[in-house]
Amino acid sequence: MYFKVETKAKVHDKLANNLKNALTELDRQFVQIYENLDKCLSEGVQNSVRLCVATAQKELIEPDNRDNRGFHKTLKALCKNKGHYWSKNWCMILDLNECLATHMQESIYEEFNQIFPVNGETERSLQKHLDKVSIIQSDNTFCRSSMLYHIQNFIKTRENKLKASLGRKVINRKKEIYSSISTTIREKMGTGYEKAAKIHGKNTLKKMQKILSDTIESLKDDMFNEAKTEVLERFNNLKLEIKDAFESEMKRSMEPFHLHTGKTTLLGK
Q: Which of 5, 62, 96, 120 ranks highest by number of CB atoms within 10 Å?
């Protein structure tokens, strides 16, 4: 199937303009999501700074329901393993990093589940915004042409395959973005864990407890702000990858209509 040079140029220009508009709209949606996430994270930082030491002491460092005669071994094992401990029979799993991340995770939980819902879509879900983006518009002035109908189908098929691929990327990145809070905390707490793990002799438990509490106290402002920054950076990286992938793939799909001289078959090959 062939079409005139003028028509081909018109098709390409229309699709290029639609792509520009689609990328602008996608960016606008990402900015709104980013701002909402930033607000929730800021609240999480404040709550974490205010409550983290008391929470860590109550839940893990100095719990009331532990037998201190053996707990020093558990706490030392936790420190040697960068804040994570599990018993040999898996009946006990302790994680100080997750404990410290609790208040930030609670602050973003609702918003995060709106952005990355477990099932289906929400009004604010990233997948919903992706599904809405298209360079084939319902009011396309070329849609009545049989030839251009095939063009639209070709583009739409490529677009749908891309969206499915990007959807899988979003799912894979969801856990990575969320868990970056505890990952950042683990890295920041590293020196404190190493120092506590080296303690031995008399009053080992009390000394380890003090080191951990003091480390949290000294790091809390920088640690939680850095965790916030890490979440936002990872989300922004996801945005850039999605936009770049959408733009490059759609431009490749438009290539058969790009040249403005000679006759060209509809799909090239």
A: 96
The whole-angstrom separation of Cα 129 and Cα 121 is: 10
This prediction's pTM: 0.86
Give residue 263's pLDDT: 45
pLDDT at 1: 45
Structure tokens, 222: 């920088």
Looking at residue 1, the DSSP 8-state letter turns out to be: -
Residue for token pair 């868990």: 179
Between CA 35 and CA 41 the distance in angstroms is 10
Q: How far apart are CA 191 and CA 194, in angstroms?
A: 5
Question: How far, in Å, CA of 60 to CA of 100, rounded?
Answer: 10
**Residue 218 Rama label (left phi>0; alpha psi -120 to 50; beta):** alpha
